Amino acid sequence: YGQDYIPTYEKAKVVAVVMNRVRAGSDAGFADTIYGVLTQPYQFSGYYVSYEYTWQVTDDVIAAVDYYFTYPEEFSSDIYYFYGDGYYNYFY
């Protein structure tokens, strides 16, 4: 899989983006729940509003979430976006 080479820490930064958006909430134009953030239109390419979400939660996803909640001090509280160029993810 293409995501296999991405370190857990980099995947956990995506978790940080999600959690920062939840904390910022509707005042910042985001949803107020994790589900709401993940299913907000045009935000995450793995989810499409017109389809039922059926992706399996992988061990890599669990590891990234665990890492984020174990070491929250390692993540910036002001990253709300990211994009990838096929080699690296950029967070801002």
Secondary structure blueprint with pairings:
Elements: H1 8-24, H2 34-38, H3 59-70, E1 82-84, E2 89-91
Antiparallel strand pairs: 1-2
Helix pairs in contact: 1-3
Would you mind describing this structure in some detail?
The structure is a single chain. This protein has 3 helices and 2 strands. It is mainly alpha-helical. Strands 1-2 form a two-stranded antiparallel sheet. Strand 1 and strand 2 form a beta hairpin. It starts with 7 loop residues before the first helix and ends with a strand. The relative contact order is 0.22.
Short recap of the structure:
The protein has helices at residues 8-24, 34-38, 59-70; strands spanning 82-84, 89-91.
List keywords for this structure.
two-stranded antiparallel sheet, mainly alpha, single chain, 2 strands, 92 residues
Global Rg: 13 Å
What composes the largest sheet? 2 strands, antiparallel
Q: What is the tally of beta strands?
A: 2
Count of runs of 4 or more consecutive helical residues: 3
Provide mean pLDDT, rounded: 86
Helix content bin: 25-40%
Strand order of the largest sheet: 1-2
Outline type: globular
Assign the structural class, choosing from mainly alpha, mainly beta, alpha/beta, alpha+beta, or little secondary structure: mainly alpha
For the termini, the CA-CA separation is 26 Å
Poorly predicted parts: none
